Amino acid sequence: IILGGLAAGLSRREVEERAVEVAEWTELGDFIDMPMRTYSSGMNARVGFSVAVHMKPDILMIDEALSTGDAHFREKATAKMAELRESARAMFLVSHGLGSIKEMCSEAIWLDRGKLMMRGEPADVVKAYIKFVKVKKSESATEDM
Fold first, then answer.
1. Cα angle for residues 83, 9, 84 (degrees, 5° grid)
2. Which residues contact 15 (CB under 8 A, 6 or more apart)?
3. What is the pLDDT of residues 98-117, one digit of tens each?
4. What is the value of pTM for the model shown?
């Protein structure tokens, strides 16, 4: 938490003022004090996401953070992102989670190997993407749609 806050450009005092709130939001309890090398990918995602959103960034970039958490974490993270959107912050969500893109984004950009394929309404971009990759409507392929 301290390193993440310092990396975000906050002073040590500012980070320490937010550290308890960040730790509580993760819901890791006593595990928060364990070495990060012992964390699961979901625990890492919780800490990373919590640090990012509680440092009150002007621009927030979330890269696949929601794909590693359980349903409770995803719901909580989605609510926190909605709260940040309401405070007029700029947010970028990088994800293959098509359902998350449709739910959380006001605009979508689809890139393929660095080339802009489409920009527009999330539902339209997702529909075009699905058609492009020729995804069949199997349950596992469309899990997050």
1. 5
2. 1, 2, 5, 6, 55
3. 888 898 889 999 999 999 99
4. 0.70
- Convert 84-112 to b/e letters by CB count within 10 Å (16 or more is b): beeeeeebebebebbebbbebbeebebee
Residue type, 46: R
Check if the beta carbon of residue 39 is closer than 8 Å to that of residue 25: no
Residue 78 pLDDT exceeds 50: yes
Q: Which residues contact 122 (CB under 8 A, 6 or more apart)?
A: 101, 102, 105, 106, 107, 108
138 contacts: CB under 8 Å, gap ≥ 6: none
Q: How far apart are CA 128 and CA 30, in angstroms?
A: 45
CA distances 125 to 21, 128, 133, Å, are 36, 5, 12
